[in-house]
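Morning!

This is the sequence you dropped in the shared folder:
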Amino acid sequence: MSKRVYISADYSMDSGDRNVVDTLNQWGADNLHKVDFVDMSTVVSGSISKDPDCRPCDLKGEFNRQINASSAAIFVIGDKTASRKAGSICSRANSNQINCYCTPYKQNTNGSKACKVFQTCSMGPDDDFGNINEFSYLRHEFEQAKKRKKPIIVVYNSLRKESIWLPSYMKDYESDAKPFWTKNYYGEKVGDYAYIKQVLGYA
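The structure's back. Tokens below.
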């Protein structure tokens, strides 16, 4: 039976952590591995972002729904994860609508637009993590997974533990975070399939 797993990572084309994500998705799709999972971060990605007026808060709301439908969340930590700020531009939580502007998703060349959120409300104990915030997309995903008490798996895009890469908001997971890569019998760099299989609960 497939597990629904949410993968959070820096998807930057030139300096991100797509190599880890690609390996995880390969394991979930091929016939050689027992880790049969669906990467929930790609299932409906694009449904909201295709809207020409998609804002950071819209994307965060979609991330919430994807995480809620997942059984676990894998967070890939690279050397630039802690410094990524995408998604953090929103100031609506602390300002009036008339004073807030943001740039629709991937439309930087078109400039900013006035906030479209008419009214905000406080987050309740049973609510999703609020999608109106000044957190990066990466931190928002983490806070939502933590609030919804999803099993959280943290891996470094490295052959060794790189605690210095870990964002401050993930410090409680420092002792559990593991390198994603290892060396096989031939000295080749490969993903640590045995570890991922274990933490996802596959026999």
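Headline: The beta strands are 3-8, 37-39, 72-77, 101-102, 113-114, 152-156, 178-179, 181-183, 189-191.

More detail when I'm at my desk.
O.
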